[in-house]
Each structure stands twice: as C-alpha cells, then as structure tokens.
Amino acid sequence: MNLGIPNLVAFAETLEALAEKDHKIIAVTSDSRGSGKLVPFGKKYPNQIVEVGIAEQNLVGMATGLASTGKKVFAVSPSCFLTARSLEQIKNDVCYSNNPVNLIGISAGVSYGALGTTHHSIHDLAVLRAINNLNIIVPADNFETREAIKLAAELEEPVFIRFGKRAMYDLHAEDATFELGKGIQLKEGKDIAFIATGETVYPAYQAAQLLEKQGISCRVISMHSIKPFDEALLLETAKSCSAIITVEEHFVNGGLGELCAGILMQKGISVPFKIVGIPDEYTVTGSQLEIFQHYGISAEGLFEVGNELLENNNLA
User: What's the rounded Cα separation, in Å, for the pair 314 and 248?
Assistant: First the structure.
C-alpha cells in the first residue's frame, strides 16, 4: 500500500486536467486559492478562476449564477465556513433552485487541528444530509478523489465533496471502479465489518489487519457516497457479518453511523453495532492525528473497539 498525495492536491490536479479540455470549468474561491491547492490552476487558467475574498455566502451566490449560465462551477472553501456561513445559500440557491454547483469543502473534519473548534467541520455531513437534492461524497484516497471530481464535472446536479489535508494511502486495486451511491469493499471478512468514510478508512483498514492477526476476519468498506447511500451494501453486510463498526471524522450525531443505524433499525435488522466518531462534547485540541488518537479513530483504538464489541456480545 503506497502513500499518495493529499486528496486536495489530487483534486486540484484533476480539475486542471479537465479545464484544459473544457473551458466551461470555473473555480470560485473564498481567499482559499492557496489552501485549495489552486495556485497552479489560476496561473495556467486565469480566465477560469474567480476570487471573491472571505465572503462565503457571496461565493455560493456567484457560483450559482455562473452555473445557471451553463458553466461547470467548483466552489472551493474551508468546509467549516462553507457549510455554516453559506448554509442558506446552499439550501435555496443551489439545491432548491437545482443549480449544478460543485461545492468543495476543503480542510474538513479536524484537519485544521490546533486552530480548534471554530475551524473544525464535524457538523457538515449532518446539516447537508438534511437538505434535499444534494449529492454528498467523502473520498478516502486519491483514486476516489479523482473519480469524484471527474463525475462532478459531468453530473448536472448539486454535489458536495469533502477533503482533508493529509497525504493519503492508495487503498484500491488497479481495476477498482467508482460509482455514485455505491460503496467499495476493500477487504472481505465475516466477523467484523468496518464501514468508514473519508480519511478514517485507512485506520479502519489498519485495525482490520491487526484483528486478523488474532484470527478475527474483518471486512472493510469505503462508504464514499453519503448521499445517495448504498443501502443494499449495508444490508448485505449486516446479514453476512457478526458485527458492524462505523468510523467517521464527524460528530456521532447525524453522520455516517446514525445513518447506518437508522436504516438497519427500520429494516428490522439487529446486529452488534458501534459508532466511532467525535462525541458530543467540547473537542480536545491537538493535531488531526492527536485528535484521532484521543477519540479512538486509530488502528489501535479501533482494534480495541472490535475486541470489546465481540466480547460484549459473546462473539469472540
């Protein structure tokens, strides 16, 4: 498994390659050209980038106007501000009005680390899931990132794509395929299923490897599409695996875990189940990896959760 580049860099490189062939592609940024890795894009295509300054509501409004004229717009801004300050514009201008804007939430989750709660974006999936007519994608690695951006450039629907800042390991086989609304099984197993999204997929995969050393068979799924959601894959996994652990860089309220739990409950499927994410409390301060470690979003933490889940349900 090789270490790739940050997903943000993969995003910018993919957008630049697409813009070379399609002059309808426009990047709109809110003083985030640098943090969005779009400086090379701006130098190469100065007529295909718009800088609005620190004005996220204007960012979404201008992106919507451009999209309504047939441009393929990528509105790039820190996810914490894009999905809080601009929520009304996302709801009304983009989704309600059905304008195909690609909302790119950068430095999401706890990527900003020691900048603290004001800069954490661990609410974004919850608030955006509650808005009709919005696709939500959280890529786990460079492959999923590139495929998501290529898809967004062709999809005539509103899309939100969420990126962190760290370099990511390549998780997929060379013949992997990416499809909106379809999770990707990275590893087969029958005892514990890790269903993870975004930058938490890799520690889930590491935990699965640790557990297998003591004879516990683990399935790992990258659930990159939060909306539309791969309900069929979740239900099949619940029926074929003894326990499920969901993992996310998000509050435990309203994210991937509660989405999975709600589906299983409504389908009448009972399976030992654990949500691992950021608890509903004042978030500790530290780097992204330190915060992950504190809340058990790590290979070691998930290894312990897996063992406890099996032991508590007499499955070990």
Answer: 26
